[in-house]
Known about the structure:
By secondary structure, the chain is an alpha+beta fold.
Amino acid sequence: MGKDRRRSNIVAPDTLDVSIVTWNVGNEQPFARGHEDPGLAALIPYSVDLLVIGFQECSYNAGSAKSVHRDFDEDEDKLVAEGAEFDLKVLRRSHQNLKNKKPVGKVLSSKFIDRVLAEYLSKFNMVPLASKELNQMKLLIFVQRTMRRAFSELRMTTEATGLMGVYGNKGGILITLTYRGARLSFVNSHLAAHLPHIFSRNDNVIEILEGTHIFERQLDITLQSDHVFWFGDMNYRIDPNYQPGMKPIKVKSDSEEYRSDYAKIMEIINRKNFAELKQFDQLSQEIARGAIFHNFQEMKLDFAPTFKVLRGRQLAEVDKVKPDTSDHLYSMQRIPSYCDRVLWHSLPAVKSAVTPISVTSVPAIDTSDHKPVRALFRLRTFEEPVKFSEPNENSQLMFTNITCTGGDMAERVGFYLVFSCYPTSLISKLVTRPTTKPIWPGPINLRIKVRPLVDATLDVRPAIETNLHVIITVVDDKIGLDETCGDAILPIGDVIQRNDTVQFSVPLIQHTRDTGAVLSGTLAIVNQKEPGWQNWSQRKKIFRVLSKPLHH
């Protein structure tokens, strides 16, 4: 009785307002006046259902404005430039020595930020839901008090990047949760610094995806979440000399070429023609060429670059900086860039569920050399708490004439396919026999495994026409290696709803990189002896997964 009463008191509207904030604190104390600091009101000016905040470089000390870990980026660059051969023990010892440096003044606990935010957000009736740290990074999630128990399946993990994963303050924090049957994932990342290291940043993204396994080990989080929000100090720069696929050449800041590049970008910023900067933005161009973050989206950046700005304490020395008329005063040490970003990714069948509302920087905060960025989204869910009956047990998905072409497929010998799905275990997992060529005439039949929902108040999945997907992984059958060539994802709700036969042709993606290969074939529903499948949409039947989660 008490359990039913608790369930009835849970507030879970079918739309969710989500605010995401990312801020590189710059190793300097934020919110010096506690929960009454005016910076908090600028950073979080309104109440939302779900607030996600990612901090980077949030270690600092009370007695000095200098970074506690200020040497990391410079030392790592120096080691790479010198072509040093890294010994793991030496590297770890060097890393520990840096961490153990005694700074001037008292190092404040990172819990200070948690406490100040909790006190400030209480006026919006918001409470903490999750918190995770990695080195100098922090990811916090707050939620409306009345909605807290509407979230379930909360899981967290981290992945450190940098040299051998132990040096520096870079990496990613992942928190996943479920709301009304939709799995939401949030990644706070801090990627490799400096303009020339564009490929290192791309590799950092791959490392984070490969290292943050929470569910199926062979699939990254973008294939196992309805929506992924990826944000942080990604460190992609504005590069006036950007060439697709080419490593940028480092230009010294005291050279004439650098001063010319700086002046070119500042002229665009001063005209507030921010859209013109996109052609020079490394992240936008890397996404466009399929090098990283395939199918991720970003709102239009209609504000000035957020890095590298002068801190408030530096403004007294403004005469040392070339005057400009932009919203911020920038250091001439770096070309102004959009380092701080908010991206999102949705599975194909639920892309319309996310409505981007706004994205902006927060110019009023001046304690860091980065300006915070705040994005607002409205998320629509599809769950309908209704009971339903069991479908025909003989229903199957039938694949025929599957081929994989393009990319480097012609250079490989020996392949097999692995069929998975999201939500996990809706269908039977299947692995095909190895072939010498990436051709599978079929038929390949996958049994659909579902059962009726007994208690409609429990966690259920969206209606059949929304988020059902089959994932086909192409694997290179190397002896003892079994290297993954990439994944193709197919939304199957419409196929089931229409009881149709469809031709498909989808790109093969490997950890958000477009491999250049395409997987094609035919998909149909077979063995339907009863009309249950045809009437699912009209009767709005939702099916719950039978089997336990699959493992690699």
